[in-house]
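Exercise 7.
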Amino acid sequence: MKKKKKKIPMEESPIRKFHVKMATLTFGAHFTDGYVIGIISFALLALGKVWDLTPFELGLLGSSVLIGLFFGSFLLGWASDYIGRQKIFLFSFILITLASFLQLFAPNVWILFILRFFIGFGLGGDYTVGQAMLAEFSPKKYRGSLLGSFNVFFTVGYVVSSLIGMFLLDAGVAWNWMLASSTIPAITVLLLRIGTPESPKYLMSQGEEEKAQEIVKENLGEHVYIPHEKQTKNLGMKHLFGKKYIKRTIFNGTFYACIVLPYFSVFTFLPTILSYFDMQEGHTADIVLNLFLLLGAFLGTYLTVKLSRRGFLISSFVICFVSLALLGIIPQSFSILLIIAFVVYTIFISAINNLVGIYPAESFPTELRASGVGVATACSRIGSALGTFLLPIMITRLGLSPTMLILSGVLLLGTIVSITLAPETKGKKLA
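Solution. The predicted structure, written as tokens, is:
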């Protein structure tokens, strides 16, 4: 007689093929995001020769996706708490795929800006919903490593786009074909997402327990169940800024912004910055730093498992602050020290990025999770968009060293906020 398997709650389930599938579909969005942001660096080099772009227009196009991410994460994250995760999960990549392809025909700066804004809008919504869905499906034991892996795939997408961008730029390929190449990863993710189920935790919060249990059994096994949860009211955005959640909202929005602002500012205009340091010899420096970004992403995944969330966050902020401040202080003649500081910054700003996929998703309850992740992502993207927009202007007017010191000040702010407000969420059950 076959022994009946013991019933286990969804959060205690071992990793199944379904978890791998959901993770892959969510990681695909981050790969696409990295690709979209990375390819613009090389497209702008080609585009600048055709359209004679001003520093303002360079900053506008460089920050276009990030501006879209701000609005998309805020609005689509809020919407998914009302209409469900799955609808936004699919819609976001329909929008990304169409806008990516239409870049091929952009006739001027403003149309290109609008198209890249819509790409960012879709990615912003997908960030919030993807993090919420993966957090809600993941077993508690593996949640940190799965959510932390977002950054690995973003970095892989960024590095792949950089290598392709170098090749296409050297081959004389037009800027619009460079940008439209993001259609390939986007449509791949879109097609694979068709048929994705709704989050069981979201359905439970809406009182649809039977449907939630059915999805869990179908995808995770007959012996797996989702514990009963009371139906919750759809909480409005105002609850994120109420007494109960205001500290979590401030912390997540601030620490996230303080990481991605200097990250995107530096790496969107990496070829320009390297030329100021006399470190640009062909594409060697770009390739080496991209490899260190990858190293940092994998290191961050390891440290996420080994260290506490709070300890990893604070120590990484300190290292990034010191290394970027040194880039603003060390004289240009001390090239070896500059290279070491840049490498250390590259590794640890990539490593700390693993936490932006974890902390927001673990900080809010189901009925506010997508909205909370959305607000945190929105804060981060308006900060990174502002930094990316202003960077070429600041370098032109202030010089590179003062600009690096300003960016290091952002990291110092992140350090202070993390010491003051960062909670420990590792290993805790999702609310």
